[in-house]
Amino acid sequence: MEAHEEKPIIYTMENKPIVTCAGDQSLFTSLYTSLAQQLPRESMEWRRSYGRAPKMIHLEANFVQFKEELLPKDGNRALLTFPFLHIYWTDCCDTEMYKASVKDDMLRWQSTLRLHGSVDWLIVVVESEAKKKNKTNILPRTSIVDKIRNDFCNKQSDRCVVLSDPLKESSRSQDSWSAFLTKLRTLLLMSFTKNLGRFEDDMRTLREKRTEPGWSFCDYFMVQEELAFVFEMLQQFEDALVQYDELDALFTQYVLNFGAGDGANWLGSFCAPVKRWSGLLLRRPIDMEKRELIQRGEASLLDLRSYLFSRQCTLLIFLQRPWEVTQRALELLHNCVQELRLLEVYVVQGALDCWVFLSCLEVLHRIEGCCDRAQLEANCSHTVGLWTYATEKLKSLGYLCGLVAEKVPTSEDLNRTVDLLAGLGEERPETVNSLQSPYKKLNEALSSVEAFEKHYLELSHAAMEMYRAIGRMRSARLIGKSLAEFYMKKGDPERAEGFLDDSLRSYVAEGWRLQVTHTRKQMAECQKLLQQTEDYLQTSALLAGDANLTEEERKHFCQEILTFASQPPAPSDQTVALSMAAFAQLRQMQFSPPGAVVHVGAALQLELRVRCLMPVAMQVEQLAATLHFSLEQGGARGRAGSAQRRAGHGPQGQGDGVVMFPQGSPLAGAGMGASLPPALELYEMQDRSPSDSSLTSTGVVCKNMHLLLRRHDSSASLDTPTAGALPAAVAVDDGAQMLRARDITLQPGDNSILFTAPTGEPGSYTLRQLCGSVGRVQFVQSHIYPVVQYEVYSQEPQLTIEPLSDNLLAGIPQKVTFTIATGHYSVKKGDALQLSNTDSMPILHSSCCSATVLSSTGGQPSIHPLERMGESALSIQSSEKVTSISLPPTPPYHTLEFQLEVLCHIPPTPFKPDIERLTNGEVRHRPKSHSHVDSGMINIDQKVSIDCPWSIYSTLIALTFYVPFKAKHSILSAGKRKYIQVCLQNVSDTNFHLADPVLTERQPTVSMELLSLNVKTQQPVCSQQSVFCLWEMRWAKPLPLCLQCAFSASFAPVSASDTHTAFKPYRYEFQLDRVSTLYSLKAEISPPSGDQHCRTGALCGLEVSITRQAEPSETEGEEEESTEIEGLRTTKLMYEVVDNSSNWAVCGKSSGVVSMPVAASATHRVQMEVMPLFAGHLPFPNIKVFKYLPHNAVPAIQPDTDSCLENDTISLLDKGLDDQGDTASIRSRGSVHSVGSGEQQRGLPMPRLEPFSPGQVFYWSQGRQVLVLPVTDDHVMEVNVT
Amino acid sequence: MLTRLKTQVPLFSMNSYTKLREKLKLSGLSFASTHSHVIRLGRHSRHNSKMAVCIAVIAKENYPLFIRSVPIQNELKFHYTVHTSLDVVEEKISAVGKAMADQRELYLGLLYPTEDYKVYGYVTNSKVKFVIVVDSSNTSLRDNEIRSMFRKLHNSFTDVMCNPFYNPGDTIQSKAFDSIVSAMMVQAS
C-alpha cells in the first residue's frame, strides 16, 4: 500500500498532496479505500489570493502514516513533501480507554505538531454500532467527542468530526461521510491556500533579491519549480505552466540584459562552452538528470533550456495543446541559437545544427506520439516549420561534413563528423529500442554520403509535401530550389532542372527580379551541364541582358552566345532561334512619310529604334521584319476614306507616324505583362451619315476594354505560373516580303535602324515578325505589338474643275481651276486635254496661261500640304470643235493645276429655268434641288465634255452658272398713247454697271417708233436692286395685233478694271398683244338736283360714258364678236360698277350690257344712282368693262380666267390688281352676272364674259375724287383709326 | 508630358478615394494587449537605434513595388525571405474569410520567425502588402513599435499613391517614401 511507503517518489508525477494519519492505524486502513475513492468525487471551489480567478478542483490526497520526520524543518521549503493536513483517527468509545491511552497519544501528537508550527489538523472519531454492542460500559457517543473537543479544540470545534458507521450502507453513514469529506476538503484547501500563499510570498521575496550579488537563478529556479510541481500535483497545469513561463521569461531577460552589457554573475556558468548537444528529451515527465545539473548549478544553457522546455512540453500535452508545443519548439530553437550567439558561448561548429536537428525530430516524435495521423495531417502548418528547420540543419551539416559532394569526405571532414557525434553522447535508454530515433537518424545520416542523401531527401520531400498540402507553394519551391542546389553539387543536373524550372517560373510569374536572376544563373549552369544548347543560349541571352548582374557576368554570357554563333554550323543542326525579348527591346517605329499611307512605288522608310540589351556591341548580319501582305478590297479606293480611317487609328494615329512599344521590364516579357494591367488603347471614332457624309457623332472608343474590365483574380494563383521560364519556342516564318537591314552593329542601348519598305503593290502591309541573325543564332520576335502596318494605294487619275469664287455668274468671263491628280498615270509630253467647245460656253484663253505642278508625295493630300514642284506654260489651241490644252509632263501622284477663263452666255429669251443644257443640245429635266432657288437666281448647268489622255472615255463635268438679272416688262397707257416699261432686277450679289438700254422691235415696222424716255446711258445696278427703263410708242398706221420687242443692255461688274471691254450684253425679249386702246370710259358723279355737292346718304347720279376710240382694224375685228343689226355693227359690252372700299352704295343696277356700234367715237351713256356712305373726297368707284359673248359664239381663243389672274403681264397693268379683286367680289356677292366656268359646268348655253387685254380699255376717271359733304344735321363723325 | 497628364487625371480621383478609405480603416486599429505573464526587467537603450533590416512593399499581384534591405550583399536572401513570407500573408488573409474582410485588422503580426530574422506583415485594404524584416537579436522592438512602423509606412505609401504622377503598379521611386523607409532601417554604421 503506497500510503505506507517510507518516502514519496516525487518524479513519477503520480504525486498527491500528503496527509498524515496518526492514531489508530488499523482503523484508518479499513477506511482508506473508500476514503481515497470518495475524496476526489466532488469538486471544491478554490478561492485564491492576488485576485486570481477561483477554480473548481478535485482533491486527492496521499495518506501516509504520521511520523515526526515528515514535518518540515525550518528552512526546508520543499512543498511536495510537505504534509498539508494531519488527521488523528480514533474509534475510542469508552471513557476509560480514552483517559488511559488515547488522550495521551493525542496530546503527544498535538505537541509535535505545535512544535513544527503546523495548525492543519483534524481529529476523526469513528463510531460503530458493533463496537458499542461489544462494550458494556458504554458512554453516550457524544460524551467522548465532547471530551475531545473540550480537550483539544478550544474555539475550533470543527476540528473534530464524527464518522458514524463508515462501513455500513445506511443513510446515516452516508451523511456522516459526506460531512466528513466536505470538512476534509475544506481543510485541505485552507491548508493549500495558507501554505502556498506563504510559499509564494517567500518566493517573491527571493526573486526581489535577484539584484543582490549572491543570488542564483538556479536556486530560484528550484523554488519556483516546486510551486509548479504543486500545481501540477493539484492538476492545475495551467498554473504550473505559468510558473515555467515566468522562469523562461526571467531567464530570457537575463540573457538579453547580459547581451546589453548588464551581466549577472550566475550567468557565468551558462556561458561555458557547450560540450553536449544531445537535443531535447521529451519522453520523460521530468528529466531528473538535467534537473540535478541545474540544482547543482552545473547546467549549460542548452541543458537549462532543454529542461525548461521539456517541462513546458509535458504540461502543454496535459493541456491538450500539442500544436503550441511545435510553435514554442521552433521559437525555442531559434532563441537558443540567438542566445548562444549573444552570450558568445563557444560551440563546436555544427554542434548547434546537431542539437537543433535532434530537437526538431524529438519534438515531432513527441507530437506524433500523442496525436493520431488525421490530426497530424490536419495540422501540417504547425509541424512543417520544424520539418523545414530540421532539413536546413541537416543540409548544413551535410555541407559541413563533406557529404554533399561527388567525392567522398576528406579526413578533415571525417574528424569533424567524429567530433560532432561525440557531443551527442550515448543514446538515451528510452530510445535505444526505437529504430527511428532522432539520435539514430543523425548518426546514420552523418555516417555516409548515401545515407545522408537518403535522409536529406526524405526530410526535404516531407517538408515540401506538407507545404504543398497547406498551399504554401513559395515555401515548397524554396525547398525545391535548395534540393536543386544539392543535386547540382552532387553532379546530377537532370534532377535539379525540374526544381529550378519550377522555381524560375514562379519568380518570373510574380516578377521578383533578383530571384529570377539568381535562379536563372543556376539554370544556365544546369543547362550547360545537360548540354541543352538552345535552352542554354536562351538563358544566356536573358542573363546577358540582365541588369542585376555585374558587367563581367553579363559579358561572359554574351560571349557564350557569340562563341556558339561563330562556330561553323554542323550539317545536322539548323540555326538556333532565340527570343528577341532577351536580346533587344523594340522602342519605337517611325514611318517617313508619317502617314504610313503611300502610293504604289513611293519611297517609304521605317525607322526602328531598338534597345539592345547586350553588354557588348553585337554584329548583326541581318535584321529583317517579315511582312504580311493583304490586298485590301479598297486597294485603290478613294483617298478620303483611307484618310479618315487612318486619322482615328489609335497608337499609330498620333499623326507623326510613330508607333511606341509599351515598355515592360526587360526580364518579364510575359511575367510583368500578366501582372500589370494593360494600358488604355483609345481610338477616335467618327460616325458620318451615309448620305452626305456630315458628322453625326464623334467619340472615343476603348479597344481593349475586354482586357481592362476583365475581373482580375485577386489572389494570383501560384499553382500554374503563367509564363514559362523560357519563352516558348520561336519559329521563324518565311514571309514573302520583308524589311531588311544588313550588317548592322547594335551598340548596347538605343540603336536606330532604317528600313526601306517595299511599296510594289497596292494593299496593306503588316509587320509580323522581327528576326536578327548573328551567325548561327537568330533572335526572333514572333509578334510585333501594337500592330504596325502601312498601306500602299493606287489611285486613278482625276480631273476636277472648280470655280474660284462661290458661284459662277453667266454672262461674264470667270476663271475656273482645273486640277488634275495624276494618280498612277504619268503625264507625258504631248498629252493634252480635249475640251469640246460649245457655243453657250466658250473657253477664253490667253497666252499667259501657266500650270503648276504640285507634289503629293506625303501620301494624303488632304492631310499634308502640297509641295509646289514647278510651273510651266500651257499651250492652248482652239479649233472649231475642240479646245486642246497641252499638259506639261507630270510624274505620277502629283497634282497639276491651271486656271482658264470661261464665259457662259445668257440665253436671250425668258427661258424656262431648271433645264439642263447639254453641249450636244439635248434638253434634260433634272430634279429641282437647287440651292439658289430661294434667291430667285436662275441657274444654268453647263456640262463640259473633256477627253483625258488617260482614258478612252470622255469626262463630263458640270458647271453651274447663275443668271444675274431678271427682267419684267409692262405696258402703260394714257388715252391713246402707249408706253413700255422694262424693269431689270439684279438678283446676284455683285454690283453691276448697266449701259445703253435699248428697246427694239424684232420685226421692225416703219410705222412705229420707240421713243426712249431714259436719261442716263449708264447707271449702276446694285445687288438686289432694280432699274426701270421707259419708252413711248409712236405709230402712224394701226398697230399689229402682236408686237415682238427686245430689250438689250450692256452690263459689267463694278469691280471690273477695264469697263469698256468688260461690258457684256444682256437681252430680254418679250411680246406685246393688242396694244391700242379700243374703248375709253368716263364717269361723272352729279350731286342731287338743287344741291351743289354730294352729301352722304343722298343719292347721286353716276353717268358712265363708254366711247369707242378706234375703228375696228382687220385684225381686231376678227376676234370681236359683233352682230349686224340694221347695217350697224354692234358689239356687246358688259359694264360693272365695283366699289371695293365700300365708299359707295350702288342703288339699283350696278351692271348691265350695252350694245356698242363698231364705229369710232360711238358713245354709250349709262345712268346709275349711287349713294356716298362717307363724307370727304371720295375716289370714284371702279367701272369695268368686259366683252360680252353670246352663248353660241365660239371664241377663237379662250383665255383661261385662272391663267389671267396669274399672268404677270396682266397683273402689272394699271388696273390689273383691282380687277382681280373685283372679279372675286362679283363672284362672292352673287350678283346678277355670274362668270366663269361655274355656269358652263351646268352644260347650259350661257353667255360668257371675256376681259379685254390691258391697254385696250382706258379709264379716264381713274383716280378722280368727288367731294361729299356730311349730312347737315349729322354731328357724329366716325373716325376710323387703323 | 502633356499626354501623360491627361491619362492621369481620372486615376487621381480614384487614388484619393482609396486613400480616404484606407485612412478610415487605420483609425479603427485596435491593439491587443501583450502577454501578461512576461516579466519585464527594464529596457536598454543599446538596441534602440536598431530597427528593421528589410522593408518591402508588394503589389496586390505579388510583385515587389519597393524592397530595400540593409546589408546590400545579403539582398538576395532578403528577397527570398520576403517572397516566401507571402505564403503566410495569403494564408492569414484567407483565414479571415470573406465576410470579415472589411473588419479585418491590417496588421498581420509575426508571419514567421527564422533563426536570424523575424518577418512581420501588414496588408492594406487594396491588398498591397508591407513586410518588415527585423533581426532576431533585436529584442527591443515590441509589437506596438512594429505596428507604428507599419502605420507610418502605410501613410507614406498613401501619399505616394496620391501623387498624380505616380502610375499605380509602378515601382515606388518616391524620395519621401525612401526617407521614411530609411528612418526605419538600421543605420549602416
From TrEMBL, chain B:
InterPro entries hit by this protein: Longin-like_dom_sf, Sedlin, TRAPPC2L
Location within or outside the cell: Cytoplasm, Perinuclear region
Keywords, ordered alphabetically: ER-Golgi transport, Transport
Pfam family membership, one: Sedlin_N
Matches recorded under Gene3D superfamilies: 3.30.450.70
Record flagged with keyword Transport: yes
GO biological process: endoplasmic reticulum to Golgi vesicle-mediated transport
SUPFAM superfamilies in the cross-refs: SNARE-like
UniProt key word Phosphoprotein: no
Taxonomy, superkingdom: Eukaryota
GO annotations of cellular component type: perinuclear region of cytoplasm
Family, per entry: Belongs to the TRAPP small subunits family. Sedlin subfamily.
Name this protein carries in UniProt: Trafficking protein particle complex subunit 2-like protein
Protein species of origin: Oncorhynchus tshawytscha (Chinook salmon)
